[in-house]
């Protein structure tokens, strides 16, 4: 009979909070709860395990609440650097007002 863990998905899932993307382990270190089915709080930048309600920081992986089980190995995804000559979007209303003020 195969062990139940043999069919478990490994790896990480992507979560976004506050405009930042995080790579989060798929399973809680406490009892293997599916963090990818947990609650992501974008305001506090946390993930809550649906199994025993352990709460972890997305920023540094620190466990903030729940049964003691340690940190998560969370990684912050860095966005590609912006080009210095990239055009910034403009607000046409402000541009039109500035042109009319000068007339």
List the helices and strands and how they pair.
Blueprint: E1 12-17, E2 20-25, E3 39-41, E4 46-48, E5 55-57, E6 63-65, E7 75-77, H1 92-102
Antiparallel strand pairs: 1-2, 2-7, 3-4, 4-5, 5-6
Structure, explained:
A four-stranded antiparallel β-sheet has the order 3-4-5-6, with no helix packed on it. A three-stranded antiparallel β-sheet has the order 1-2-7, with no helix packed on it. It has a domain at 10-79: Rieske [2Fe-2S] iron-sulphur domain (Rieske Iron-sulfur Protein, 3-layer Sandwich). The protein contains one helix and seven strands. The protein has 103 residues and is α+β, with helices and mostly antiparallel strands. The radius of gyration is 21 Å and the shape is globular. 11% of the residues lie in helices and 26% in strands.
Condensed summary:
Helices cover 11% and strands 26% of the residues. It is of the alpha+beta class and 103 residues long. The strands form 2 sheets. Strands 3-4-5-6 form a 4-stranded antiparallel beta sheet, with no helix packed on it. A 3-stranded antiparallel beta sheet has the order 1-2-7, with no helix packed on it.
Structural class: alpha+beta
CA distance, first residue to last residue = 83 Å
Discrete helix count: 1
Poorly predicted parts: 1-5, 81-100
Order of helix and strand elements from N to C terminus: EEEEEEEH
Strand order in space, largest sheet: 3-4-5-6
**Radius of gyration from CA coordinates:** 21 Å
The name of the CATH architecture of the domain at 10-79 is 3-layer Sandwich
Number of strands: 7
Helix amount: 10-25%
The residue-averaged pLDDT reads: 77
CATH superfamily descriptor of the domain at 10-79: Rieske [2Fe-2S] iron-sulphur domain
CATH class of the domain at 10-79: Mainly Beta
CATH-defined topology of the domain at 10-79: Rieske Iron-sulfur Protein
